[in-house]
Amino acid sequence: MKLTERIYKRRTYFDGGIGTLLQKAGLPSGEMPENWNLTHPDVLRDIHLAYMNAGANVITSNTFGANCLKFDNLETMIPAAFAAMQEAKALFDGERSSVYLAFDMGPLGKMLEPLGDFPFEQAVECFAKSVRIAETCGFDLILIETMSDLYETKAAVLAAKENSTLPVFVTNAYDETGHLLTGANVASVVATLESLGVQALGANCSLGPQQMVDIARQYLEHASLPVIINPNAGVPRVENGHTVFDVDAQAFSLIMREIAQLGVQALGGCCGTTPEFIRLLLQKTADVPFSAPQKKETTVISSYTHAVTFGKKAVVIGERINPTGKPKLKDALRRGDLDYLVREGIAQQESGAEVLDVNVGLAEIDETATLVKTVKELQSVLNLPLQIDTVRASALEQALRIYNGKPLINSVNAKQKSMDTVFPLMQKYGGAVIALTIGEDGIPATAEGRCALAKTIIDEAARYGIDKKDIIVDPLCMAVSSDDNAGRVTLDAIRLIKRMGVKTCLGVSNISFALPDRPAVTAAFLAMALENGLDCAILNPCSDEIMRTLRACVMLAGNDAHCEDYIAFAAAHPRAAVSASAAPQTQKKDELPELMYAIVKGLSAKAAAAAQELLEKEDALQVIETQIIPALNLVGERFEKGVLFLPQLLMSAESANAAFSVAAQKLPQSEESRDRVLLATVQGDIHDIGKNIVKVLLQSYGFEVLDLGKDVPPQKVLEAALQYDVRLVGLSALMTTTLDSMQETVALLRERAPQVQTLVGGAVLTQDYADLIGATYYAKDAMQSVHFAKRVFGR
Amino acid sequence: MSEVFLSVGNAQTIRINRREAARYLGYRGVLAPDAEALFDVCERELRAVAAPRAVWRTSPVQSDEALVTFSFCKVESAALAKNLSGCKKAFVFAATLGAGVDRAMLRLQKTDPAKAAVFDALASAAVEGWCNEVNEALSQGRQTCPRFSPGYGGVALRHQADLLQFLDAQRKLGITLSETFFMSPVKSVTAVIGIRRDEDETH
Fold it and tell me: Which tens digit of pLDDT belongs to each residue from A551-583?
């Protein structure tokens, strides 16, 4: 019987730890255990055989760290590891057909971007190298284990799927709070991995069997696939001043019995467990009846921290990251200013969005590259699941690939071409999809017509093995101003489609197009749609009117315990009426004009408003020169005198920035007008807080900053300096280990772009070092970099 | 019994020396009330995302003039040899505030640079405070030397890799190292603490 069949029918046992046994056999501290595949194959053969004799079905290879970052002899090492297992199996005189040999892959030991410096695709390639070798050996499955980062897990799964036809089992390692070390909870791991098409999943290592009981319970609650639980024998630790030690084989097996009774399909051990643990485990669980995996019908998507489930209460999908009808966002996209998009995302999250739609389709930009960059930026600072919104297949594929979690796709429709494009990508990368009821002849006028198209889509998806729980139908709404029945038809369609057992979604704001007081109409329609069973709505979460209605509806439907969410929302969003210009300003203002005062005090909103007011009387350049810059200078002087400190300086800079961007809109637009500074943290350096501080200050003085980010190779700095015709390049380095990289960058610029002046700074830099490497200027703090920039541009 | 011990701290109670954090930012003297308020907000956010954890393990150690020999590596450093002179054993340890702090930093840098600066300084103070807490627990009933970290006293940063491997810190704490020896999560520390005399051994 194949393992993938067996695991649905009988309890399957995994082997236990290898490391402890190797140490007992004489592996010296500091030597890599994988080397023993080549030097001590007999020891490994005996370990594998001992586990087979103990009753383990799945035997794992001694290749936990066998990746190209640690070894350059994988071509011989991995086959040697397999040979030892095969030899053990040949010697095994039990039932060989129920022994399966797993190729084991552990983490690479590198933190992936954005938290670390290791690129996602490079991780995929590292795993792929090992998988390609393993594929030729004759293993029965690939076991990806002890993964404590969801993104790296995805990289390993993709590598396995793209380079092998073997079944892929995955077990992750959790901390004492039930999260992976980079934050994912069980629900999000399960959603992501099931969607990527692994064959079984679960948890290993972590803290010990007792802590694993609750994790096992969570897996069983969320997973449709077989669940594997391989705890270690415990980590000695200090809890409330008491030292807690490992459990022994006896205690281990008793807890594992409890886990078996929960209904877990596969059990085994990890660090510190031995064949004796596995033997007792079999003995103690022999009479526990086997339970088959329970398929779950929930519609769920996830980010890299948590899952969002559809069906309980309406899910809010924020629509604002979309250039349609938004000139500022269009402008930001053209300039490549992704920070603007990120701030849009954060504002929506703070307003209550649970999922963010991401659409960057604009004729004049490279949509694929921009979408990938935007998704990466968003998922580096926002933990909401994303809805990838594009009609371009290449953009969709690349975005799905680098997405960290289980995404929502916007969208597929009933046209054959659309389904032929979207479903193969979903099949490979997973995700749930918004299905629009648009057919070859457009949008049907009747609810029944739209329902029929929904069925077409569901049936076609099934051909790809895509479950209908991953399809969320959007029956579309037309403007009621152009068709009296527009609202009615859509509401009927929602009800009919719900009867087919799928979830529904609507972009609600269309309904009120061309009508007065649109929010009122949209909000009423939303309320009606929710009452007809709508599961999620794509809307503007920053609109009070709509969110107020949504909260009220959720509460009235009985989904808001003690009315808490509604009350909190109402408290945070009082009805506008009285306040506005009520309280007159009574503070003393150091005799400063309004705008200068706001900047000095670091009040961004006030600074922007004051600038707006001034611009009605004065011209923009005058406002900048007589108010914004002098206010900044004042703050700068106080900073340099030590009267005021870095956080205040930054707040003032932010406020000046806010005022400056208001004024800049009134400035004549010209390409070369602004003085351009390029900033980068040098290659190998991933700390960029210092560089970011300099950036904020330079921007506040009206410099245009091109920020290349952190860990930037010298060549890239040079290319950007030439491409954008930059006169000043600022470089930051924080540690002694990256000073060489700074030197190299400065040298390259001096050689190939001698017109460029360089400004260097960072914790370990000194004037002497700056002179030594030939940098034009050394800035000991952020203010000094402003002084120097002013000098370069003759201000 | 495995040899690596794990300690899980409480983010709500770890010590954060605010004066120290303020000093990192260049503050002198007493914090003004508005600065205090900003520090309060940042400290709350920090405690909400920090996950203080540490691992430690003992190693035999032998110090000659400028060479220190542990069971897992040799370190050339006169300063460390001096620090550990007379010790036969040392604690090797690693501590971290976890990846949640890094994520919060990434976000604050996009949304609020002033808060980002204060948050970063407080996190630096917090990881120091957490190391002190672990250090004190290890020094209970023992006579120990001052904590010593790679990057100081001529101990090459690359030795962080040896320490982390000895502690299995990647698996246990999620600490990884870049090519240039940056630790991730950023607010992480590796160190050795020499043991001069262990009360337990006198019995």
Answer: 999 999 888 889 998 999 888 888 765 444 444
Residue closest to B141 by CA, chosen among B60, B86, B196, B78: B196
Please report the pLDDT score of residue A243 as a whole number. 62
Q: State whether residue B69 sits within 8 Å of chain A by CB.
A: no
State whether B106 and A114 contact (CB < 8 Å): yes
Nearest Cα residue to B8 out of B177, B172, B124, B171: B172
3-state DSSP call for residue A251?
helix
Of A159, A629, A647, A512, the closest CA to residue B22 belongs to: A647
Q: Do B184 and A233 touch (CB under 8 A)?
A: no
Q: What is the DSSP string of A742-769?
A: HHHHHHHHHHH-TT-EEEEE-TT--HHH
Statement: residue A511 has pLDDT above 80: yes
Question: How many CB pairs below 8 A link A and B?
Answer: 166
Please judge whether B5 and A243 are an interchain contact, meaning their C-beta atoms are less than 8 angstroms apart.
yes
What is residue B110's predicted lDDT score, i.e. its pLDDT? 87
Query: Residue A136 and residue A120: Cα distance in Å, rounded?
Result: 25
Quote the CA–CA distance of A292 and A439 in Å, as a whole number: 40
Calculate Rg over the CA atoms of chain A. 30
Q: Sort out which chain B residues have CB atoms less than 8 A from A686's CB and list them.
A: 178, 182, 184, 186
Q: What is the mean pLDDT of chain B?
A: 91
Contacts of A173 in chain B (CB under 8 A): 171
Interface probe for A, chosen from B133, B172, B183 (most Cβ of A below 10 Å), is: B172
Looking at chain A, the whole-number percentage of residues with pLDDT higher than 90 is 66
State residue A737's pLDDT score.
Answer: 77
* Domains by residue range for chain A, with CATH: 3-285 (3.20.20.330), 309-571 (3.20.20.20), 594-664 (1.10.1240.10), 676-792 (3.40.50.280)
- With 80 as the cut, is the pLDDT of residue B74 above it? yes
For A235, the closest of B2, B106, B182 (CB atoms) is B2
Q: Compute the distance between CA of residue A210 and CA of residue A201 in angstroms, rounded to an integer.
A: 19
Distance from CA of B101 to the nearest CA of A (A): 10
**Ordered structural domains, chain B, with CATH:** 5-202 (3.40.109.40)
Q: How many other C-beta atoms can be found within 10 angstroms of the C-beta atom of residue B113? A: 24
3-state secondary structure of A765: coil
Report chain B residues whose CB lies below 8 A from the CB of A645.
22, 25-27, 35
Q: What is the 8-class DSSP label of residue B129?
A: H
The reported pLDDT for the residue numbered A573 is: 83
Q: Which of A628-632, A672-676, B121-125, B194-198 has the lowest mean pLDDT?
A: A672-676
What is the spatial distance between Cα A121 and Cα A173, in angstroms, rounded to a whole number? 22
ipTM of the complex: 0.87
B69 beta partners: B62, B74
Alpha carbon distance A130, A143 (integer Å)? 12
Instruction: Count CA atoms closer than 13 A to A294's CA, side-chain side.
Output: 13
Percent with pLDDT over 70 in chain B: 97
pLDDT in tens, A176-221: 889 999 999 999 999 999 999 999 999 998 778 888 999 999 999 9
Taking the CA atoms of A402, A403, A407 and A412 in sequence, report the sign of the dihedral they define: negative
CB contact under 8 A, A343 and B111: yes
Q: Do B72 and A685 touch (CB under 8 A)?
A: no
Residue with tokens 């009985």: A558
pLDDT at A240 over 60: no
| pLDDT of B202 higher than 50 | no
Single-letter residue type at A25:
A
